[in-house]
Each structure stands twice: as structure tokens, then as C-alpha cells.
Amino acid sequence: MPLRLQAITREEHLAFIRTRPSISHMQVPSWGDVKPDWRAESVGWFEEDGRLVGAGLVLLRPLPKLKRYLAYLPEGPVIDWHASDLAVRWLEPMLAHLKGRGAFSVKMGPPVVVRRWNAEAVKAAIADPGARWLRDAEATSHEPGAAGIAERLRRMGWRQTEPGGEDGFAAGQPRYVFQVPFAGRSLEQIRQGLNQQWRRNIKKAEKAGVKVVQGGYDDLPAFYELYTETAERDRFIPRPLPYFQRMWTALTAEDPNRMRLYLAHHEGEVLAAATMLTVGEHIWYSYGASTSRRREVQPSNAIQWRMMTDAHELGAAVYDLRGITDTLDESNHLLGLLRFKVGTGGEAVEYLGEWDFPLNRLLHKALDLYMARR
Prior knowledge:
Blueprint: E1 4-7, H1 10-17, H2 31-34, E2 39-46, E3 52-62, E4 69-73, H3 86-100, E5 103-108, E6 113-118, H4 119-127, E7 141-142, H5 146-156, E8 159-160, E9 176-181, H6 187-193, H7 196-208, E10 211-215, H8 220-234, H9 241-254, E11 259-266, E12 269-279, E13 282-290, H10 299-313, E14 318-323, H11 335-342, E15 347-351, E16 355-358, H12 361-373
Parallel strand pairs: 4-5, 13-14
Antiparallel strand pairs: 1-2, 2-3, 3-4, 5-16, 6-7, 6-15, 8-16, 9-14, 9-15, 10-11, 11-12, 12-13
């Protein structure tokens, strides 16, 4: 029997989220407030007895001049992905509901892990001159059931977005991320899991007098100044300051601990800054920024260690450093960021990636052509 799917209130959605240990920060109601170009709707899956058993945040992006929408569930929805009747019970009601809302295409990112590579395996892959992609390196572990879920999606007509791009990043959310497992580990065990360079750099920052403090809304311009410098250095297009101000206002209104800002000070100057997001037992290092000045005092390591310390105190089971490149090409500028994250002693994690379902093939194809030309 298909589950009943309908729109739910923010309060119902938040109550459901509180029952789960880990849900993406892009699947909380306030994330819709961060994206004003999209119309947000919370949806819920209900059993016959009225129990809410699944939920998702849907972002609806209108096509110009048409009342038709791209429906997007970033890193969601939160349902029983391992159910044998995934298609009939869970996904078909969602497609029917979104089609009724005027969606011509649906994009989602199942929060399903496929493979993991521990730090040693990633370092070995980077050091292997014959290795070009992390996806081709032997994984440390495989998650049972992930291949079956992918096969069921394909049979339904869902199409997987390939990693794509010269650096392994696709449009949308990252398929490959780097995470440090915290569950069952003391802070000292986590510290011992850092590589020697990381531990040395943290001590160097302490000795140099780097002070990491929590900031607030009024400190976002200081973060943004470093962020734009980082964007120029690392060759990405920066988001505007109002995006981060909106993000702070929306997320902290929902939960005062949902978003934090950290700044690393040295001799009266802010050298690095970063944002941290929390949902349940999952904590993310979200955006990071630093200046090229006085890098020898290691502000980036100092800020990460303070965030990891606070995350452990908050009861995090996972500290998530978000996206990593899939390429192992020495000439790629993103490889340095991968090496930095590997130094935490965590693991590279591959998710199932993002999937598309065209409800109207003509409009979906037009969107594909538009995106390809951007």
C-alpha cells in the first residue's frame, strides 16, 4: 500500500527531525528561507493510522513565464531508503504529489552512503601515480544495499547525475564528502587521529597566540572579506554577503545552535573564519575563509580544532567537512584541500549522488540544454 503524502507544517516537520539522529541541514524547514528564489514546501509521508514516518523539504523553482516548476529535494527526502517497496510505497506518491504541484522535473539526493575510504586509503590513492580518480581506488568498506537502491531507482526511470567536471564536482550537492567519525570517541582519541602535521600546526597556532572566538551576525562582514579573498585564490564564484546574512537569520531563528560563526584572531587581525551547522548529531563545517597573510601561524588548523572540540562537546556523532574533489590529478588546485581534510584522520564518503525524474520530458530536456550552456 502506498503511504499518504501531503504538505505538513514547519512545526510537524521540525518535530519529525528531532526524532532522527542525522538529517541534512538542507532538509530543515528554515533552509527554504535561505533560498528566496525557490518556493519551499515541507511534505510528509503518513501511515494509515496517521503516524508521520517520513519527511522532506521540497524547493520549487519556477520556469520563466510558465507555472511549471523544477522540484528539488537537496540531500533528501528522509524516508526508508532500504524498503523493498521503495518505489510504490514511498517515491510514487511523492512524484504524484509534485506533479500535482506543477513540477515538470524532480531532482533529489538520497542520503544513502555507497562506499568509504579511510585516511590511509585516500593517502595511498593520492600517492599512486597511476590513480586518476578516487572512485577507482579500492574502498575500505561498502555499504550493503546501496547498489540495490540505485537499481530500483533506475527501473523506476530515475536518472543519476554523473560526478562530471574536471574536478569530480557536479552541479548540485557533492557526491563525495569527508567526515570524521566522533561516535564513541573521546576528544583525545580524535586529537590522536589527526596526522602529525595537523597536531604540529595546532600547537604552533597556540604558541603564536592565535585566539579562536565565536562571532555573531555583526561579524559576518569580517568573514565575508576573507571569503571573497578565498574565492579569488581558489577560483570559485563567491555568494553575496546578503546570502550569509539571510542564512544566519533564518537558521538561528529556528534553532540558536543551528549555525555558528568562528573567527581566528592574531595580533588584532582576523586571519580565518568559518561557519558551522548543526542538526541533531551531525555537524558540518560549512563555509571556510582565510587570508594569505601570516599563514605561518596556522589559523585554519586552529579554527578547525576549536570547531571539532565544540562539536564533540555538543554530542556530535559525525563532524562533516563537506565536499571533496574526486580527482587525484596533482595539477588540480583542489587536491590541496583534499590533503588538508585527510589530515583530520577521517574518511572519504561516497553518497548515491543526485537523481532526476522527468515528469515532462520536453521541459526537462529544455532545462538540461539551458544548464549545459551556463
